[in-house]
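Notebook entry, structure prediction.
Reason for the run: the old model in the group folder had no record of what sequence produced it. Starting over properly, with the input documented here first.
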Amino acid sequence: MGTTATFQDKKVISILGCGWYGQALAKTLINDGIQVKGSTTSPQKMELLLADGIEPYLIDLSVDHEPYDAEFFNCDVLLIAIPPKARSGQGANFTNKIKAIINAINQHGLKKIVFISSTGVYADLNMEVDENTPPQPNTEAGKILFAAESLFTEEETFKTTIIRFAGLIGPGRDPGRFFAGKKDIPNGDAPVNLIHLNDCIGLTRAIIDKNAFGYLFNGCSPNHPAKSIFYTSAALNSGFEKPEFIHELKEWKIVKSVHVEPILNYQFNTGIQ
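New structure, fully documented this time:
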């Protein structure tokens, strides 16, 4: 697994994509005394990042030959947290963006990378899946992300750890809102696969702290209540109208991790009830 390191050994961490998760992670690392550089494609967000103590960089690698500040890539660890945006029709550009990132990594000699992927690379094939399960993505986003994963794992000049996050919940992503007041919601008995922001951050910090690069981790709570039970409870707890589900079990999966605890000595703390 390599030599054990501590956060204090990491002088600079660059986060490519300071969205919901990336910005929250950056704030936590900064509170631990870590220097964090963060990128955004929005000029309007530069001041918001700066206000959180993040060194802001405007970087858009989706445009060919777009100049960027090379200082962003002067870091000990590069974390990549950019969505494929398949639903908005931008998925076709994602692969080229990843190739541009890899070129920049090699150009600047980086050795430690974290790439944020999704458990969406596993199709709902009515089975349990873990890191040893070969993905069979059947959605555009899943296929795009799995292809991106392959681009990183094929590289031999640096080590990439891939985190496949399940459905994201936490501050600003209240699951009680997801189905509030809706009727006849299908597949109500299907198990949920979710992870809280606290565990997204905790898992990432454990990877950096343990110097665990070159691995694959599923980031998903070990609890998998039925969709109808979880989202009904979440809606009522947040004061929203009760959703109504169809009690049926169609396509489903249960995402497990066999690597997180033995390699990282990390246990998911924020339970999904």
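Summary: The first helix runs from residue 20 to 31.
The old model has been moved to the deprecated folder.
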